[in-house]
Design a protein that fits this description.
There is one protein chain. The chain has one domain: Metallo-beta-lactamase, Chain A (4-Layer Sandwich). It contains seven helices and 14 strands. The protein is globular. It binds zinc ion (3 copies).
Length: 254
C-alpha cells in the first residue's frame, strides 16, 4: 500500500493569506501546506481520504489519473470543499457516480454544499455521488480492509480510518480511550498536530507525540499543521527520531 500526503495543512493552509510570519515566509517547500488529505494506492484501488479545497491541484501535482472512491472524515469545508472536482474522474471512468464513504452526520452539509449534485434533474456535467453510509462497522473496498473509528471533533463526529497496521487520524479534539484501544497494534500513523498549543477542536503537537509514544509506533507523521507549529526543519529536529512533520507530496509504503 502506497500512502501519499496530498495536503498537510490546517483549514487556512500554509502560508496563510497575508501572513508575514517566518513560517509563512519560509522558502522550504515542506512549509507550504495545502489542506489535509491523503491518497491510498494498492494493486486494486486508488482512494482519497477527503477532498478539500486544494483537491484539484493535489490531483494534478501527483499525476493521479484514476480514482475509485473518496472516504470522508467529516463535513468541514477543508475536507469536502473539492468534491466538485471529482468530475474529471467520473467523466473518464464511464460516468459512474463517485463512491463516497461517509457518516450520516456529514451528509446534510455535503448535500447543502453540492445541492446541484443531488437534484432530481441534474444539470449536464454535474457531479454524481454513490453514497455509502459508514459507522464503525469495518468494510472492504477492493483489497482494503477498512476500520472506521469514531472521534469527537468539538461538536462534530469525525472518523479515523485504520487499514491493517496503518491509520489516518485527523481532526479530533480529544484522545479517547476508545480511539487508543482501536489503534493498538498500528505501526504507521498519520496523526494531526495543529500546533504547539491545545485547541478546542484539534490536538496539539505534544498530544500527538504522546499518542505516537503510547502506541509505540514504528513511524509517525504529523499533519493538519498550522503556521503556528513552526518551520518543519526546526520542529523535526526536536522530535523523536521515528516522528516527523508530514509534508505535501511525501509518499511511503506501508
Ligand atoms: Zn480540518
Ligand atoms: Zn504565518
Ligand atoms: Zn474539522
Amino acid at each position: 500500500m502506497l500512502i501519499t500526503i496530498l495536503g498537510s495543512g490546517t483549514s487556512q493552509g500554509v502560508p496563510v493569506i497575508g501572513c508575514q510570519c517566518p513560517v509563512c515566509q519560509s522558502k522550504d517547500p515542506r512549509d507550504k501546506r495545502t489542506r489535509t488529505s491523503i491518497l491510498i494506492r494498492t494493486e486494486q484501488v486508488t482512494v482519497a481520504v477527503d477532498a478539500g479545497p486544494d483537491f484539484r491541484q493535489q490531483m494534478l501535482r501527483e499525476g493521479v489519473s484514476h480514482l475509485d472512491a473518496v472516504f470522508i472524515t467529516h463535513e468541514h469545508k477543508d475536507h469536502i470543499g473539492g468534491l466538485d472536482d471529482v468530475r474529471p474522474f467520473i467523466f473518464s471512468q464511464g460516468n459512474h457516480p463517485m463512491p463516497l464513504y461517509v457518516d450520516e452526520s456529514a451528509l446534510p452539509e455535503i448535500k447543502r454544499e453540492f445541492s446541484y449534485a443531488f437534484e432530481e434533474h441534474l444539470y449536464p456535467g454535474a457531479p454524481t455521488y454513490d453514497v455509502h453510509l459508514i459507522d464503525e462497522t469495518p468494510f472492504d473496498f477492493g483489497d482494503l480492509h477498512v476500520e472506521p473509528i469514531k472521534m469527537k471533533h468539538y461538536t462534530l463526529t469525525c472518523y479515523a480510518f485504520r487499514i491493517g497496521k496503518f491509520a489516518y487520524v485527523t481532526d479530533l479534539s480529544e484522545v479517547s480511550e476508545h480511539l487508543m484501544d482501536r489503534l493498538q497494534g498500528v505501526e504507521f500513523l498519520v496523526l494531526e498536530a495543529l500546533g504547539p498549543k491545545p485547541h478546542y477542536s484539534h490536538i496539539s503537537l505534544q498530544q500527538a507525540v504522546d499518542v505516537a509514544k503510547r502506541l509505540n509506533v514504528k513511524k509517525a507523521w504529523f499533519t493538519h499543521c498550522s503556521h503556528s507549529i513552526g518551520k518543519a526543519h526546526d520542529v523535526n529536529a526536536q522530535l523523536p527520531t521515528n516522528m516527523m512533520l508530514a509534508y505535501d507530496g511525501l509518499s511511503f509504503k506501508v
